[in-house]
Amino acid sequence: MRDKKTCDKKTRDKKTRDKKTRLTAATVAVLLAASACGGRGEAGGSTAAQGECKGQQTTGITGESVKLGGIYPLSGPTSAYGEIPKGIKAYFDHLNTEKGGVGGRKIEFIVRDDGYQPPKSVEEARRLVEQDRVFALFQTLGTPTSSAVMEYANQRKVPQVFVSSGASKWGADPVKYPWTIGWQPSYASEGRLYGQYLKDDEPDAEVAILYQNDDYGKDLREGFLTAIEGSGVKVVAEQSYEVTDPSIDPQMRNLAESGADVFLDITTPKFGSQALAADAQNTAWNPLHIINNVASSMTVLEPVGFDRVQGIVSAAFLKDPSDPQWADDPEMKLYEEKLAKYAPGLDPTNAFYSLGWASASAMEKALGAMKCPTREGLMEAVRDFEDVRSDLLLPGVTMNTGPRDGYPIETLQLQRFEGERWNLFGEAIDTRKAGR
Fold first, then answer.
1. Among 289, 227, 228, which Cα is nearest to 255's?
2. CATH number for the domain including 429?
3. Could you tell me if 346 and 385 lie in one domain?
4. In this structure, are residues 221 and 266 in contact, taking their beta carbons and an 8 Å threshold?
5. CB neighbour list of residue 430: distance below 8 Å, 6 or more residues apart
6. Are residues 346 and 283 in the same domain?
7. What is the dihedral of CA 27, 30, 31, 37, to 10 degrees?
8. CA 126 to chain centre
9. pLDDT tens per residue across span 27-79
10. Shared-domain flag, residues 212 and 334
11. pLDDT per position as a tens digit, 317-372
């Protein structure tokens, strides 16, 4: 795995690249044209009524502004994710104040709380679309919650862009769901990365798995199982938990009894902290602890104690704001400076803020790439990325999409926690090489 080279699209055969571009444009045009509304939305920019843009939806966008709506669990068991929109808002405030927005359009970002409850997610999506009249839903967070919203968004033909979840479904059926697209690497891809890592470094490992009992947990688990199939790596124990469970202590006791060499921890932040603490307390069990990217932030690790999480392994696609190697990095310096200016008091080392910043940067790129300032134009843009960079992505990581690729980012790099920070090792791996 470590000997593989990061995919460099710039060296592709030109004929293949041109064919992809033509296919992308044609496919997206057909999908969106088939689902487009017959009339225009509320008045938009003048170009929306001219040429190929005529008849497309302009609700929520004018020549001076664009309105976006985000849905997050600001309350409830996964409320740690409620910090992400603060980083997004800081980026948009910086963009609006210092750059005049995107193409002269200032971004209004409206955030709603769903408490990580799917029925509430749909309720808030309806509120954003039908009352607030947003141009697009941006960064709906969570797999079960965003799945519920996906049905509504595609029925209403409203873009659901850069879903904050790595579930495989966001890119699985663009014909049925042309208005939804993911952003971060898929959970299945992350699972395959861990499986390949063990095959290379621990070829006879016995593995115990803890996973959240929903699409999120199952996707990563299945990716891992697919990667180790036919190898000497074996799963000897598995336990699942519900997001509403108060504790995972019983599951951790059962997994420890297996005596496995490796513990694959597929959790969200609250349960990630619990799993790390339980592992550290059980001195009789000392497995290699692999924790998924979702639960690898400093806000998860620090309460447990850095001395108790040494040597754990995870994966990353973003620069870690707590890592001193990025101290002089221009993107990181800009992030730290503007976060302090537009969101004073926030800790810039909190990875949830940098994640929000990076996703907002991606949205700026998408809005800037629209040929038509319409909902259809936005979806065409996000399905035709080629080596597009968003702020704070790791070196070698770019955004790439296509007619059947609903994940702009699919490159990951392994990291190990040492001292008081994550340290990258190996090389950035484009998981597309492993196929879907």
1. 289
2. 3.40.50.2300
3. yes
4. yes
5. 6, 7, 410, 411
6. no
7. 150
8. 23
9. 444 455 444 433 333 333 334 445 679 899 999 999 999 999 999 999 998 89
10. no
11. 999 998 888 999 999 999 999 999 999 999 999 989 999 999 999 999 999 999 99
